[in-house]
């Protein structure tokens, strides 16, 4: 607002205060209307946000109810857990299996021979000579490492293998008699074994040439060229109910349908796969609890107390009524395509109270699960028409990317931005009104000051005439 410190000097009137009161009186009705509209929109946005949050939480529950695994729990037990562990998936068939582990998968381990480098050898300073070292694996793949004149020590070769190899790790070890290089394959199984080590160097006297190895020509001690095999690569060998199975690792995923085995020792054990009791009931109870939590939110948002006059954030809101109607309709409808005694939630003992929440008759649910568990599962999981699919569809209708709630929220946000512009327009109009009032009162003040001067002059003249008589 404009400020003029000399307002009222000529008239003696508090013009500044008068202008402020006039501007405030002019602004008040407009400000009340804008504030009321703004608060109403913000209340709707807040209420819709809570509604969306409640629907989304409920949706995370019903989304799983479309799938059979939500109603089936499979567990596995192993009689001797020292031999292996078992993890049964939801699709594993019930059964008992005898498993005998004859051999564990293991990686290969090679070491350079004890007297290969000599007594004065230093792994960090002694030159091996520039050239290539190529590791060839049993599966036919190769890895080549190139030493240069600037980096040609055993430590350089170790660092290069560890930095570049996908299949081997290298160590430099002092065994008390001298330094050795130890190579260990990172993968287990015969196909990951190092079958040969080839070296190339222009200098036939270079130490690098001593690092050759050929698994096919090992002697009785496992020695070939400059390396001795400490441990051979081998596959895991197991028998499941008499059927021999060979794998390159100790993690066996398909020896028993739907069961992952982790082999830890040789021996014989039994693996039992059974259905976990109570999973379907827990899933249905979870559905009822999730729905009741959503319904409590809906009831709170739409509430009205006639005694206090207080109402929920979305009292009378059409979108809230739409959610209530769609949920109630979906709860009450029978599932299309199902025959027999289980076709709707009421057949499981799930009914609706007066406040819209669900009540579960556990005895009736237990009877349904005992009589026809497949039908109970199908009631929720049947494609397109099952309770899970239909409830999930209702939730997405209101919470998805182009859903009713998102479109409504965007519309309200746009209206808020429009009100912000109206506030700016109001401020500009009030500034102009204030300027106009200041101009008018300034003119009045100047006129009064002029009249006061004229009056003072006339008073002086009359006083002079009277004094001259």
TrEMBL record:
InterPro entries to which the protein is assigned, alphabetical: FliD, FliD_C, FliD_N
Residue span, Flagellar hook-associated protein 2 N-terminal domain: 11-108
Intracellular or extracellular location(s): Secreted; Bacterial flagellum
Domain Flagellar hook-associated protein 2 C-terminal: 233-453
Entry keyword Secreted: yes
Keyword line: Bacterial flagellum, Cell projection, Cilium, Coiled coil, Flagellum, Secreted
A GO BP annotation: cell adhesion
GO cellular component: bacterial-type flagellum filament cap; bacterial-type flagellum hook; extracellular region
Physiological role: Required for morphogenesis and for the elongation of the flagellar filament by facilitating polymerization of the flagellin monomers at the tip of growing filament. Forms a capping structure, which prevents flagellin subunits (transported through the central channel of the flagellum) from leaking out without polymerization at the distal end.
Quaternary assembly: Homopentamer.
Protein name according to UniProt: Flagellar hook-associated protein 2
């Amino acid at each position: 607002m404009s400020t003029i410190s000399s307002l009222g000097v000529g008239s003696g009137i508090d013009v500044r205060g008068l202008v402020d009161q006039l501007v405030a009186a002019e602004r008040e009705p407009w400000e009340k209307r804008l504030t009321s509209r703004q608060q109403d929109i913000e209340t709707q946005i807040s209420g819709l946000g809570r509604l969306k949050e409640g629907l989304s939480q409920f949706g995370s529950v019903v989304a799983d109810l479309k799938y059979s695994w939500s109603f089936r729990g499979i567990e596995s037990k192993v009689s001797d857990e020292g031999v292996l562990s078992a993890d049964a998936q939801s699709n594993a068939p019930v059964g008992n299996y005898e498993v005998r582990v004859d051999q564990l998968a293991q990686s290969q381990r090679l070491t350079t021979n004890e007297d290969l480098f000599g007594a004065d050898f230093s792994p960090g300073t002694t030159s091996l000579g520039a050239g290539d070292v190529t590791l060839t694996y049993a599966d036919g793949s190769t890895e080549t490492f190139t030493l240069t004149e600037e980096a040609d020590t055993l430590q350089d070769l170790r660092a290069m293998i560890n930095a570049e190899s996908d299949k081997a790790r290298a160590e430099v070890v002092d065994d008390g008699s001298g330094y050795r290089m130890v190579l260990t394959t990172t993968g287990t199984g015969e196909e990951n074994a190092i079958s040969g080590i080839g070296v190339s160097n222009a200098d036939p006297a270079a130490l690098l040439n001593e690092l050759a190895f050929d698994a096919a020509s090992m002697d009785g001690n496992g020695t070939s060229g400059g390396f001795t095999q400490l441990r051979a690569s081998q596959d895991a060998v197991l028998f499941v109910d008499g059927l021999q199975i060979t794998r390159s690792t100790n993690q066996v995923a398909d020896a028993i349908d739907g069961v992952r085995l982790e082999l830890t020792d040789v021996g014989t054990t039994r693996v039992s796969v059974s259905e976990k009791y109570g999973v379907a009931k827990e899933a249905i109870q979870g559905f009822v609890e999730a729905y009741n939590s959503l319904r409590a939110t809906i009831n709170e948002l739409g509430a009205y107390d006639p005694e206090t006059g207080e109402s929920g954030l979305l009292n009378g809101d059409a979108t809230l009524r739409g959610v209530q109607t769609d949920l109630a309709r979906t709860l009450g409808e029978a599932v299309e395509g199902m025959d027999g005694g289980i076709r709707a939630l009421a057949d499981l003992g799930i009914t609706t109270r007066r406040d819209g929440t669900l009540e579960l008759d556990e005895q009736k649910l237990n009877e349904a699960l005992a009589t026809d568990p497949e039908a109970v599962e199908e009631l929720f999981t049947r494609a397109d028409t099952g309770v899970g699919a239909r409830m999930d569809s209702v939730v997405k209708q209101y919470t998805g990317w182009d859903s009713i709630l998102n479109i409504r929220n965007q519309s309200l946000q746009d209206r808020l931005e429009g009100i912000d512009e109206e506030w700016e327009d109001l401020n500009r109009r009030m500034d102009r009104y204030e300027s106009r009032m200041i101009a008018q009162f300034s003119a009045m003040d100047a006129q009064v000051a002029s009249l006061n001067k004229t009056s003072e002059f006339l008073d002086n003249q009359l006083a002079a005439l009277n004094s001259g008589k």
